[in-house]
Amino acid sequence: MAQQSTSNPFIAFASSVGQVTLDVLSEVGSVSRYMYQAAREGIRPPFRVREIFKQMEAIGVNSMPVVLITAIFTGMVLALQSYTGFKRFSAESLVGTVVALSMTRELGPVLTGLIVSGRAGASIAAELGTMKVTEQIDALVTMGISPVNYLMVPRIIAGIVMLPVLVVFSDVIGITGGYLVGVHVLDANPTVYIKRTFDYLEVADVMGGLMKAAVFGGLMALISSYKGFMTEGGAEGVGKATTGAVVLSSMAVLISNYFLTSMISR
Amino acid sequence: MIVVEDLHKTFGANKVLRGVNLHVPKGQTTVIIGGSGSGKSVLMKHIIGLLFPDQGRVLVDGEDLCALSESDLVRVRRRFGMVFQGAALFDSMPVWQNVGFALLQHTNMPHGEVMEIARERLEWVGLNADVMERMPAELSGGMRKRVGFARAIAMDPEILLYDEPTTGLDPVMSDVINRLVRSLQERLGITAVMITHDMVSAYYVADHIAMLYLGEIVQSGTPDEIRASREPLVRQFVTGDSTGGVYQVR
Question: Is residue A22 packed enough to be buried (19+ CB in 10 Å), middle (13-18) or exposed (0-12)?
Fold first, then answer.
């Protein structure tokens, strides 16, 4: 009977879709459980200020160079692309506006979220995964210390705090990159460019981007820590956890971005 | 002191524990022997509440670990010290912080005092103060094990659990570790549970030995009783005979 079922391509397909759905739901359920636990333990002492600062350095400060390089080139290419398009209907003067709005509302937070997911997310999953397979996390538990409180909460707080900080720098550098290309390569008038940049930029645009960044930072740290905690096996398990953390965090950034944008834009 | 009653644990399709019953007397060392995959580590993780059974219970001085709240479980766990097979040292901090980690987390003791306790515990395990500032990656296997011992006894536990403490060590270092286990037990009157498949170690440190086979205790007794056992599985294991049923496939 079972053989008949699996030989039917439709049933085999439905079965594999069902299995994938179950796996995804199970993963979402586990992450949600950790999110609840982290929220509960995050508001209870001990508050690990030293650990939080250490993670702020690891997630934020150490990601700064790659975020800034990405931001400046994104701003520069954005100016080039929008100039090419806008020239077709004589709207070149709006290049500054487009660069500023794109960077603050969308590209700053999303690109920073993706870059930090790749850099810090991988590092978190690898570190906690190694701690898991070498029984360091069990050692914490036997000493009466909650791994969620000691390891996960400081990383989530650091992610929530540092992603918006990175995005502020990313926005400024991206807009600067756009200005450099606009003024020095495309020969735009500097005064007009700057005026156009700030004429249409509102505080809400920047704040919306920063709010999204805070959510991305929290999600990235939560998912990467979760993947680390779930690591099994040796080096291979750590490798899988690291890859899984990057993929899942990046997807979480992209998917949550749509829903956050639709909420903020209302 | 510790009573394990009818403990069952299954992972997926793999029945690891199938009704384990064990009594660990206060102030003595109980050694659990058994082949690889017999369920020794899983049993030990149940004793300290790292895993919870599907059926049965673990009582520590009459308190059922499964029935305890999270905070009560933390209180009970703090009565334990555990020496891990690979030492499980925190590789992001130096030796003295590893040894004094629980003190730093659970007390307001100044760093100077914690360092003093760490230095004393390291001395007990035969390491001098030179290693205090070294990182775990800079230590040899034997030194790491001993730092793990020092960390386990830093909070003056009533119960010590040893997970294969001599695995991967040369015979001389194994003897150092065995003497250490014995001397800690004699010096501190600690209740200890050790899992091992090293019979030299088991005979040296044990007051009681229990053999785990396919998730059940097949025999328990004093070292002399185990040595003289006529139970085929026990005989095969203690003599290291490869012809027999110890590694029978489940």
Answer: exposed
pLDDT at res. B169: 79
Q: Which of B105, B114, B145 to mutate to test the interface with A (most CBs of A within 10 A)?
A: B105
A143 touches chain B (CB under 8 A): yes
CB contact under 8 A, B105 and A138: no
A154 within a domain of the structure (yes/no): yes
The residues, any chain, with a CB within 8 Å of residue A19's CB and separated by 6 or more, are none
Nearest to B56 by CA among B72, B39, B71: B39
Evaluate whether residue A158 is within a structural domain: yes
pLDDT grade, residue B203 (50/70/90)? Answer: very high
Listing from the earlier edge strand, what are the strands of the sheet with B159-163? B80-83, B159-163, B191-196, B29-33, B208-213, B216-221
Residues B64-92: what's their mean pLDDT?
A: 91
Q: Report the gap between the CA of B52 and the closest CA in chain A (Å).
A: 14
Left if phi > 0, otherwise alpha if psi is -120 to 50, otherwise beta: which for B19? left
Establish if A6 belongs to a structural domain. no
User: Stretch B153-181: mean pLDDT, rounded?
Assistant: 88
In the prediction, which pLDDT does B197 show?
86
Name the minimum distance, in Å, from the CA of B235 to any CA of chain A: 32
Q: How many domains does chain A have?
A: 1
* A247 in any annotated domain: yes
Q: Nearest CA to CA, how far is B71 from chain A (Å)?
A: 9
Decide if A49 touches B, using CB distance below 8 A.
no
Percent with pLDDT over 70 in chain A: 97
Q: CB atoms < 10 A from the CB of B243, how many?
A: 6
DSSP state of B158: S
| Tokens at A260, concatenated | 């956050």
Q: What is the pLDDT of residue A2?
A: 47
Nearest C-alpha in B relative to A140: B102
For residue B102, give the nearest of A131, A135, A143 by CB distance. A143
- Structure confidence by residue, pLDDT tens digits, A212-225: 999 999 999 999 99
pLDDT of residue B250: 45
**A136 in contact with B at a CB cutoff of 8 Å?**
yes
Q: Which domain holds residue A246?
A: 54-265
The Cα of B214 is separated from the nearest Cα of chain A by a number of Å equal to: 22
For chain A, say whether B51 makes contact (Cβ under 8 Å). no
Question: Locate tokens 């020794």: which residue?
Answer: B40
B50 shares contact with chain A (CB less than 8 Å) = yes
CB atoms within 10 A of CB B247: 12
* Between B247 and A256, residue with greater pLDDT: A256
Q: Taking the mean position of all CA atoms in its chain, how far away is CA B30? A: 10
Put simply, the chain A residues between 113 and 132 with a CB less than 8 A from any chain B CB are 131
The two three-digit tokens of residue B76, written as one number:
């009970």
A5-39: per-residue pLDDT in tens? 567 889 999 999 999 999 889 989 999 999 999 99
Decide if B80 touches A, using CB distance below 8 A. Answer: yes
